[in-house]
Amino acid sequence: MGAVFNPVFYIFGFVGIASAFIVCGLSGFTVLMALFLVFLAACAAADIEKGIVPDLMAVLIAVLAIIQILINELTVQNIFYYICGALVLSVPMLVVALIIKNGFGGGDIKMMAAAGLFLGLDKTLIAGFIAFLIAGLYGAVLLIQKGKGPKAKIRLAPYLALGCAFSGLFGDVLLLISGIKI
After folding, report:
1. Sequence spans of domains, the chain
2. pTM over 0.85
3. pLDDT bucket at 2, cuts 50 / 70 / 90
4. Handedness of CA 56, 93, 131, 148 (dihedral sign)
5. Quick one: pLDDT at residue 139?
6. What digits encode the pLDDT tens for the residues 63-82?
7. Burial class (CB in 10 A: 0-12, 13-18, 19+), 22
8. Residue 38 above 90 pLDDT?
9. The dihedral of CA 136, 142, 143, 148: what is its sign?
């Protein structure tokens, strides 16, 4: 896997681990969050370098999600909440990919399904909002630049990873401040 040797991975991975410990403190959840952020960094770095998101990263994120679900209170409502998180963005992305050629890559879709399973419904919606807002702004910049047209490819995994990381670390605070409860 090329992402392991990419400096972007090391930088984002280190920032992810440090952020997890700073924001979450010392707990078992902090280890899960740090690993989640490292796997997101690997997804972003691989997409930047090779244009693909490795399936292994989606599998590892899904394993973390299952561990988190088992550690938390195991109820039908909680399981439904995390499954909805897995589906809320990945299914629309899949539909777009099936309708529009090169709409979304399969790795992006699998990464979001796994990350949504880890984050749950409300934090996945926050992650999607952040990711698509930043990617859209970048796309607008590409349109303004000379020589770049609407067919320019945007590697989406770095933006999805950023949205997921921010939402994983600060989603609870954002939900508390906004008063939104899903």
Report:
1. 2-178
2. yes
3. very low
4. positive
5. 85
6. 999 999 998 878 889 999 99
7. exposed
8. yes
9. negative
Kindly write down the DSSP assignment for every residue of the chain, as one continuous string: -GGGG-HHHHHHHHHHHHHHHHHH-SSHHHHHHHHHHHHHHHHHHHHHHHS---HHHHHHHHHHHHHHHHHS---HHHHHHHHHHHHHTHHHHHHHHHHSTTSS-HHHHHHHHHHHHHH-HHHHHHHHHHHHHHHHHHHHHHHHSTT--TT-----HHHHHHHHHHHHHHHHHHHHHHT---
Give me the phi and psi of 6, to 5 degrees please.
-85, 130
What the block records as the tokens of 80 is 């439904």
Dump pLDDT digits (tens) for 109-159: 999 999 999 999 999 999 999 999 999 998 888 888 866 666 667 889 999
- Residue for token pair 């926050």: 126
How long a stretch of residues is the chain? 182
Cβ contacts of 168 within 8 Å, gap of 6 or more: 33, 36, 37, 118, 119, 123, 127
> Hunting for tokens 């349109």 — which residue is that?
143
Q: Look up residue 31 and give its two tokens.
A: 């280890």
The pair of structure tokens assigned to 128 is 């999607």
What is the rounded distance in angstroms from the CA atom of residue 106 to the CA atom of residue 41?
18
